[in-house]
Amino acid sequence: MAKKGLGRGLEAILGDAPAAAPAARDGVRELDVSDIEPDKDQPRKAFAEEELQSLADSIAARGLLQPILIRPAGQGRYAIIAGERRWRAAQKAGLHKVPVLIKEVEEGTSAELALIENVQRVDLNPMEEADAYQRLADRYGKKPAEIAEAVGKSRSHVANMLRLTGLPDDVRAMVMAGELSMGHARALLSADDPSSAAQKVVSGDLSVRATERLVSDKPDKAGADKVKKAVARATKDADTRALEQDLRESLGIEVDITRKGQTGQGKMVLSYQNLDQLDDLCRRLMGSSI
């Protein structure tokens, strides 16, 4: 039964037409594990020892059922396109040779294949996934919509993950270590000082909701903002205030309209509290999420 939720993946890079796909050389064959090496662009940086041992036990009992996808790397060596986890587990299981499928692809294309295959099939942590998407965008010019199609994720998910790459290194390390979840990381993006806020989240074992409240709570500005808004509301005409209220109820977010004299010019400010509200607003305005 086909696995649901995957995008076009490897097919998206290799091409739909048979002529566009690099042909396998002699089909599946066996190679020494020592002749194979990981791809330096593998998005997964850490492999859980328990999961590897479990896979190794399965391989020891039933063999390696799925070949490892590799490419020639020169001097009789091969680089892994897809299947590094299986390659590592096979060695733990004591295998000296593993079944492989050799693809004649260029190094750049191989890295792109590895990124997409691993994002689809491996349980990456949020930062590994975010960094993989960023490499696809930076190195191969992929737009969020193209990445989403290739890996079988929504466009909004890919866009939100890409934002995580803007976090400070110490916060990224906390996410990599599992101290912060993706929800925590997304909330910290709007913090004035993400590093300080992250320390409070970890030390206080805060939930995602509590983290959102933490980063949105700015007591120094709260009083001044309330006074400023109250003065602005008092100087607005009844029609403007009514329009603001209608938009608030319709959009579910704060709306502020400012008119400039009798020129007909002005500005409208839409304020969202979290990324979900932003995504919903974009869907309403553009007909699709970001």
UniProtKB/TrEMBL annotation:
Keywords: Chromosome partition, DNA-binding. It comes from the Bacteria. GO terms for biological process: chromosome segregation; positive regulation of sporulation resulting in formation of a cellular spore. GO terms for molecular function: DNA binding. Involved in chromosome partition. Localize to both poles of the predivisional cell following completion of DNA replication. Binds to the DNA origin of replication. The keyword DNA-binding applies. It comes from Parvularcula maris. Pfam families: HTH_ParB, ParB_C, ParB_N. Residues 29-119 form the ParB-like N-terminal domain. This is ParB/RepB/Spo0J family partition protein. Belongs to the ParB family. GO terms for cellular component: chromosome.
